[in-house]
């Protein structure tokens, strides 16, 4: 009786040896589950790098075009002072305002600076001439600091060029004005930028996750063997699984556009057809990503983990939350690989600028190329999964 009690006490009491065995077992399971282990180790590193180095809410050296109707010392000094603020980088010279407006609409430049033909003459006569600066204000957080820096330019130019007999022109009021026209979002309303971008966020999360879960669910339930018994080709299986989610994605896009316009009062200046075509391209790109990730995952939990790992850089590096122009070159390179970067530009251009396919094409072909490449990878991975 005493021996039995001692055995029961040993079984019910705390045992360091049993505890250590369980600890070792958990470490072994983590080592075998490479995706989970990679998430535990890799995700904090990725977050640290992105938030520490890639995120910048005060973008500098934004692409700027100039229209110089007169070439004088004053105009050259103004352009030099403009670049010395570090907010502007002159990347091209435009022949007229129409060309500058087209560059703004395409998204080639963030600002267009127009110096009039009679600038020097009016300045020397004390008439306070004006320099026009047109800004693409679709993202207020990107253009706000730069616009604020423009207020200091008249004083900077006056200190350099208005000396000697011209010194009285530099005293008192500014010798010239800088008039800023905020285009596409003149009031700087944040919702105009955020709400259209939410379409890309929602479609990325739902399309990638739903497709990944659908494929891994079949393997977990054993229904993949039924597909193996049929003469279907991998491309047929993949495209057949994609189609239902395309319709779901288009329904989501419709709801978001209606809410953006009627609930948040976001302007809708473009074509409904353009919105649906852009959404269709983006949905197809994300569905191919979901198929590819499902081929790497062995269960639904891993599919969700891989989806989150793909989702994080899309949120941070696509220009949705933080200005794309403020990121370092390596972060912009990664962002230019992601389809959400181009979709955000397309949907904002359609809704706020009324852009057509000519203006959208520079953002369309990268999404098409991404979809074709990832679809090829998905088919090969799926063949390997079947084998």
From TrEMBL:
Question: Which InterPro entries does the UniProt record give?
Answer: ABC-2_transporter_component (IPR051449), ABC2_TM (IPR013525), ABC2_TM_bact-type (IPR047817)
Q: Which domain of life is it from?
A: Bacteria
Write down the membrane topology.
Multi-pass membrane protein
Which residue ranges does the record assign to the ABC transmembrane type-2 domain?
A: 147-385
TM regions (residue ranges): 35-55, 194-215, 245-269, 275-296, 308-331, 364-382
Q: Where in the cell is it found?
A: Cell membrane
Q: Which GO terms describe its cellular component?
A: plasma membrane
**Swiss-Prot/TrEMBL keywords:** Cell membrane, Membrane, Transmembrane, Transmembrane helix, Transport
Entry's Gene Ontology molecular function annotations:
ABC-type transporter activity
Signal sequence residues: none
Record family assignment: Belongs to the ABC-2 integral membrane protein family.
What is this protein's record name? ABC-2 type transport system permease protein
Can you name the source organism? Answer: Cupriavidus agavae
